[in-house]
Amino acid sequence: MRMSTLLAFIALFTGSVAATVPAYAADPSCHFPPIADSKRGLQHARSVGVLYSANTLDTLQYLEQYHAVAVNGAKNPQLDSRISNAFVNSSDPKLAINWLMGSLQKQFGSVTVYDNLDALVQARPDVVVMLDTYSRLVSKRNNQVEARFMAKFYDADLQYIGQAEGSRAQQMPSVWVHGKAAPEIAAQIDQQTELQVKALKQFDASLKALVKSGSVAHVASN
Predict the structure, then answer these.
(1) Which residue from 8, 153, 156, 216 has the highest number of Cβ atoms inside 10 Å of its Cβ?
(2) Domain boundaries, the chain
(3) Full-model pTM
């Protein structure tokens, strides 16, 4: 890779997003404290109300910042377009959320996202979903790429039904090594997208199994 391209590449992600990496936490907002597990299944549920966990909100903010840096870097003529496009595509903040919402919509009649629990409770959907997501992408200070997606299901009385999930993690070889060709770097960055898609497909399979089981369950597809 040309020295000018290498310098542009390093400048793009040196410290730009490292400080914004969200810390994954088993936050109390990721679940409700039910008195007992629900005896209701998901097979006959029609309406679903969705709440985003604190992890999800932090992750969306992180991806938006990462994506903004990538889009801005793509304007630099010294940065190889294959590299910049890989960064832009792999950090799309809407990729996971749109996929997860689409997955829920395939299983239920209506799916609505609510800003807070009070609004959701007043709407009285058949099922409540706490959607918990976490993503970490490559940066100058990080080679560990992760994607975790979990949906916890509760009945209208906020009693636990079950959960669906998908997750992947991968330690990537450093893309910051001098002498690597641009196509090789772009291919490595593209692995971020592939990892997210694999985790999302795992979530799909997990959700289908949970709905099909019709009983209280923790379902993770291998």
Answers:
(1) 153
(2) 3-22+39-155+163-220
(3) 0.84
